Amino acid sequence: MTAFIDWHTHVWLPEHLGEFGRGLDVAGQELAHRCWSGEGSHDDHDLAMRRSGVDGFIVLGLCSRFLELDIPNDYIAEQVRRHPGRAVGVGSVDPNDPDALTELKRLRLELGLQGLKLSPPYQDFHPHSAEAWAIYELADQQEMFLLFHQGSVFHPKCSIENANPVLLDRVASAFPRMRIIICHCGQPWTNETVMLMARHPNVYTDISARLNRPWQLHTMLMNATDYRVTDKILFGSDFPVFQPDEARDQLLTLNQRLPGLPTVPDAVIDGILFERPFSLLGIDPAANH
Ligand SMILES: [Zn+2]
Asked: By C-alpha distance, which of 57, 58, 134, 59 is closest to 94?
């Protein structure tokens, strides 16, 4: 049975974005601009999911004290409740927040969010720090899956020193049953992301916001084919940055946009789009509460 799942969508209101929204107008980087200018309310999200014909989707949050970014976990949970059986919620806590563990328990046990989003570059922490480790331990106990924005960022206030996916090698080894999704192919370190998937059964990646970087995505897909890890690559639109159907069409036309390069097999592309059910990561949208 095929299913079109969008593994990377956001909801937010302009007032949630704080400094994050103000700092992203990077000259010449259209993607950075789209990132904060897109309409991401519950209603905008509903409309995009309905129009694109997705069968299921993940709704992501993110908070960062450092960037005054705060998409409330309650706002994520509310959207998940509006789509019973189709949506899975991923909340966020900031490792630099002394109340992070309390909030993590609340978002899991009271709000029913099944996943946790973290980002060393956006939240300004080292992935091996004691604060981060305590969060992994609790998330593992609660049988949550983790999404890491582990890759470069545009925001001028952020450093990318803690952003390399290789820093998750130790985390994936220490928590072998915790499923980890490295967002955006860990760009620009896509080879490193492929290697992590080859080394760790519990590491996956999503291709969100890579579809407008066809050269980089092509290299990543060819390397993943060589290493036989394409079945761990998940589709994501990064809504509201892209609409799911827009992102799907970008993937379907990838080979045409790169004439002269070796062709990414149709089976790989179709597999990413239609053969990555939630059950691949042991996730059940019916188990939100
Ligand atoms: Zn995103």
From this structure: 134
Q: Are 157 and 101 in contact (CB under 8 A)?
A: no
- pLDDT of 21 > 90? The answer is no
Lowest mean pLDDT segment, chosen from 26-40, 103-117, 125-139, 192-206: 26-40
Report how far ligand 1's centroid is from the alpha carbon of 260 (Å).
31
Interstrand relation of 87-92 and 69-70 (parallel, antiparallel or unpaired): unpaired
For ligand 1, the distance from its centroid to the CA atom of residue 236, given in whole angstroms, is 9
In degrees and rounded to multiples of 5, residue 52 shows phi and psi of -80, -10
Q: Ligand 1 centre and the CA of 8: distance in Å?
A: 6
Distances (CA, A) of 23 to 158, 162, 203: 10, 19, 31
Find the 186 Cα to ligand 1 centroid distance in Å: 12
In this prediction, residue 18 carries a pLDDT of 79
Return the closest-CA partner of residue 202 out of 230, 237, 178: 178
What pLDDT was estimated at residue 27?
A: 47
Res. 38 pLDDT band, cuts 50 70 90: low
Q: At what angle do helices 266-274 and 244-252 cross, to 10 degrees?
A: 170
Q: How far is the CA of 197 from the centre of ligand 1 (A)?
A: 20
In angstroms, what is the span from residue 32 Cα to ligand 1's centroid? 11
What does the alpha-carbon distance between residue 191 and residue 194 come to, in Å, rounded to a whole number? 5
Per-domain residue ranges of the chain: 5-281
Confidence class of residue 287 from pLDDT cuts 50, 70 and 90? confident
pLDDT score recorded for residue 154: 84
CATH architecture of 5-281: Alpha-Beta Barrel (3.20)
